[in-house]
Amino acid sequence: LILMLGIENQTHITSLMPLRQLLYDALRYQKQREDIARVHRKRKDLKDEEFVSGFSREDRLVPILNLVVYWGTKPWDGPLRLHEILDIKSDLVEYRDKINDYRINLLDVGRMENLEDYHGELKALLGFVKYQADQQALGRFVAQNEALFSHVSQETTHAMAALGNARNLESYIQYEQNKEDMLMYGDVNEAIQGMMNDKRKEGQARGQRQKTHQVARNMYIRGFSAQDAAGLLDEPAERVEAWYQKWDQER
Residues in domain Transposase (putative) YhgA-like (predicted)? Predict the structure, then answer.
């Protein structure tokens, strides 16, 4: 074992991330030290100071690389270094370089520049999250990677739904079991297209409701009764009457 990789998925920005990652590092190194000491106790091969610490001059800890994968829609503007959350007073500035710092390794998915460096379902997942807030960009990315999205495992679609803030994604997918690995796969192309069509319809319906509401407001100002406005707009009388009552209260 030459390296231990730790990955933390994050959907929200937190100012304490440098401290949290520092603690994770310390705990994982401490766990390695305890494991090494346990082996030495069984072997009874240490003496003097090494026996007390349970760690010989030849022992080495495996390096740890922690990666914070940020899936949020907002650009990460939280601290990247421990120094950013330390209150280093002006009279301590000369000692700043001597105060231990710690930098986190951050992968901001939404701001990744080149997805061509990634392949397979990881590329599909990263692209889906990156473009989730821009339907046109998402549509282009899916079209350019149609084969990739046509056969996606259920585990990856779970991640897309959770990390891409698309909880209803899987309701559009019909899964089929692969006979080779016995895993469930689905066509995400059609699912994403279905979601985009529904969002487009929702937007059109919302726009129509806003237009109807504004017309009713104009009719109210011009003295139309709630009943007449409801009839002309083909809206439920109860809804228009509620609008009229609200506008009466605002006068």
Answer: 57-155
**71 class by beta-carbon count within 10 Å (0-12 exposed, 13-18 middle, 19+ buried):** buried
Structure token pair of residue 168:
């209803």
Rg (alpha carbons) of the chain, rounded to whole number: 29
Query: Which of 80, 75, 78, 97 is CA-nearest to residue 88?
Result: 97
Residue at a domain's end among 79, 109, 139: 109
CA angle 218, 222, 223 (to 5 degrees): 120
Range of the domain at 130: 121-196
Closest CA to 233 of 210, 216, 249, 248: 216
Length of the chain equals: 251
**Which helix or strand (DSSP H or E) is residue 248 part of?**
helix 237-250
pLDDT in tens, 17-53: 999 999 999 999 999 999 999 999 999 999 989 998 9
Predicted confidence (pLDDT) per residue in 2-21, tens digit: 889 888 999 899 999 999 99
User: What does residue 190 show for φ and ψ, rounded to 5 degrees?
Assistant: -65, -35
Query: Is residue 153 one of the residues assigned to a domain?
Result: yes
Alpha-carbon separation of residue 231 from 101, 220, 222, 224, 227 (angstroms): 70, 13, 16, 11, 6
